[in-house]
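Researcher: Let's do a round of design. I'm pasting the structure tokens now; please hold your answer until I've finished.
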């Protein structure tokens, strides 16, 4: 078992006010990202997480095999 604080990018645990009720495959969708400096890149969306309020968030996987909301820490995006 690994401590969460030993994993890169870990900030702190938090309670999400809109729980995930389902996850569906990414279906080949890409996400076009732009960072704060204007650099652009495209990543594949691995899955969509569906929240209780009806929103869907794109999920990506990094090179370590960890998943995260694909819209975290980017200035803007387009799916």
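Researcher: That's everything. Go ahead.
Model: Designed sequence:
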């Amino acid at each position: 078992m690994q401590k969460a604080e030993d994993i890169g990018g870990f900030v702190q645990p938090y309670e999400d006010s809109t729980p995930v009720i389902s996850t569906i495959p990414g279906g080949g969708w890409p996400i076009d990202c732009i960072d704060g400096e204007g650099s652009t890149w495209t990543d594949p969306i691995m899955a969509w997480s569906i929240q209780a309020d009806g929103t869907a968030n794109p999920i990506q996987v990094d090179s370590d095999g960890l998943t995260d909301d694909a819209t975290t820490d980017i200035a803007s995006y387009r799916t």
